[in-house]
Specification:
With 332 residues, the protein is α/β, with parallel strands linked by helices. It has 2 domains: 147 residues, Rossmann fold (3-Layer(aba) Sandwich), CATH 3.40.50.2300; 148 residues, Response regulator (Rossmann fold). The strands form 2 sheets. The protein has a 7-stranded mixed β-sheet with strand order 7-6-8-9-10-11-12, with helices on both faces. Strands 2-1-3-4-5 form a 5-stranded parallel β-sheet, with helices on both faces. The protein has 13 helices and 12 strands. Helix 2 packs parallel to helix 11 and helix 3 packs across helix 4.
Amino acid sequence: MGVGMRRRVFISLLGGAAASSAWPLTARAQQPMPVIGFLSTRAPDDSEPLVAGFRRGLAENGYTEGQNVRVEYRWALGQYDRMSALAEELVRRPVNVIAATGGEPSAMAAKAATSSIPIIFSLGSDPVKLGLVASYNRPGGNATGVNLLTTTLEPKRLGLLRELMPKATTIGVLLDPNFPPSANQINDLQEAGRSIGLQIHILRASTDSEIDTAFATIAQQRIPALLVAAAPFFDTRRDKLVALAARHAVPTMYQFREYTLAGGLISYGIDLPDAYRQVGAYAGRILKGAKPADLPVVQPVRFQFVFNLKTAKTLGLEISPNLLSITDEVIE
C-alpha cells in the first residue's frame, strides 16, 4: 500500500471514530429535559416569593428553570376540591417529580394520584399521622418534604395575641371548615384558650362572602381581636383579610410574614420562602438520583415574630416592651 493510500485509510478511520464518539454526545443533547410538576392549593399572584424560593433551591443543585429543567405549574386558587384532578393531570403528563405545596390537600392529592413518582410536600401537620411517610428520618415511600408546623403553632399565636391585648376576654378565630386540619385547630385553640382564661369565638369561612359575614359578626359582637387560623384558602385572600381587618379596626394575628408586609398587624410563623427553597433543593436532589425514602422530612427551626408598627399606630395600640424584646422584625 502506498503512502497516499495509507493516508486516505487513516483519515477515513479517524473520521469514523470521530463520528462514533460524537454520536453519544448528540444523543445526550437530545434527551428530554426533566419536568417538575408544581402543584399548589394557592394562587400564582400570592406565591411569587415562594416560587422564587423554590427556584433558589433548584439552583443549589444546578438546575435552572427553562435551561435544564421545566416546571409545570398547577394552581387550585384555594379550591381544595380541584386538587385531585390537578394531581392526576400531572401524573398523566407525566412528570419526573411532584412538588406538592400549599398544605395537606395538595400532598394528599399527589399521594393518591401516584405511588411511584417522587413527591416533595410542604404541609403544616404531622405527615406520619397523615400516612404520607413512615417516619421523619426514613420516610420509606415515594414522598418526603417539609413540615411547616403552621397548624401546630396556633396556640402560640393565640398566646402572643393575648399578650398584645391583655384586657381581652374573648378572641375571635377565623377558620376554614374545608381545610382538613380545621377540627384539630379548633380543639387546640379552645384548650389553649381555657388554659389562659380566654373565650374563643369560632368564625367559619370558605368563600369570599363568608369572610365578609365573619367580619360583620366581629363588628356586631364587638370582638376585640382576631386570629386568622392557618389555611391555604386564606393565603389566597391575604389582601382581602388585611383590608377588612383595617376597615373594622380589629387587631389581627396571622401565620406568615407576608400578611404583615401587606399591612396586617402581627404574624408568627416560619420563613415560608426558605421552606420552599428546601422543597426545590429536594426536587433537585431527586432529579440527580436521590430517593425520597432516604431524604428525611425537614422541620423549620427558625420562626419569625413580626409587627407592623404603622398598623399598630393606626389602631392606637401600645406594644409592650416584653413583646418588642422578642420581636424579630418591626415593619415601619
